[in-house]
Structure of Protein kinase domain-containing protein:
Amino acid sequence: MVRKGVLVIIGISAGVAIGIFVASLVFFGIRWYKRHAHLRRCANEQCATTLPIRTNGLGTSIDSSASLSNSITVKGSDYLAKSSQLSWWSRHNKNQLASASGIPRYSYKDIQKATENFTTILGQGSFGPVYKATMPAGGVVAVKVLASNSKQGEREFQTEVSLLGRLHHRNLVNLVGYCVDKGQHMLIYEFMSNGSLANLLYSEEEQVFSWEERLQIALDISHGIEYLHDGAVPPVIHRDLKSANILLDQLMRAKVADFGLSKEEVFDGRNSGLKGTYGYIDPMYISTNSFTTKSDIYSFGIILFELITAIHPHQNLMEYINLAAMSIDGVDEILDKQLVGKCNLDEVRSLASIAHKCLHKAPRKRPSIGEISLAILKIKQSRLTKEDTMSFAGEAYSRAVSRIENQQVELRQMGSINERVTV
């Protein structure tokens, strides 16, 4: 009996020990899971802060190219408001940004010397002033300096560096460097000698801006957007397309600029608030707060009408567009006076038709950027075909005239010979 009792006690003790062991495993397992879940959440939040996502829309305007933009700032969620108060520029994020972007980083002294102590200003935008600079290697660049009261802020600065570190296309402005030093944030771009499309269209100085150049600019912009929507992985939505953010090089080739509001087309589960520039914003985005690539298409439609009319969106452009839509040739009435009598009206109407489709109230009925690029290219090819035909006809006429002249010379020479023989 005694032995039986001992065995019972040993069995109970072993059972208790095993129970305690199992309970400990469960306890520490739960703690481990919670800790790693917390770390994953922190990592995700840090990634969201380090590499923001892009979308085109209404809200904070980032006009680094011209002063014509009117921006609307709408407060986002409490989460964004709190996170925006935190400075992302810790030493860890500095190194992460530099390694992720692959874009050269310069010191404040480098930029101060290149800009000759910030003496040559090119323009002023909501981001801050833009200066002309000559780098040590001899290249001319444009330096955007983040103003202390800028609405764009450090988050958009980081977005631009992160995105342009991996986005490269002939119709996107090239970011060649950046500077974070002595409390200053600067972006260094290739120099675009002909400034912004907005400045060219609305400058008080009379400048010759031909229809051929405008058509090519429309095609260039479409190619830049097409790369963002269809070529980038994941797709990128610009979110602030406007004439002030279209820059022109020395050959008048257009490049899309200013990616501070841009986002990658992936769902992050957060409401980022309305962002963009008044006059270019998709009305559907305003009502739904949902931004897609078709919102970029709407903004591009506005730019196309700017190229046709030279009327700024802040000057009731949409009213003119709606009036012109009442008749087939209505766009002729709002054509830029510089183009009157100097362009093919059929081409103007074709481009206006494309622009009208971009502005369709239902986003799903708007064409894709690939379809738009193809349609603009067809207008340009049609023009080139006509020019080639006219040139060929002109050359044929010249050859015929030349042959007649040669024949007349030969006849005169034969007549002269006959006269000498007769004598």
User: Anything to note?
Assistant: The longest strand covers residues 175-181.
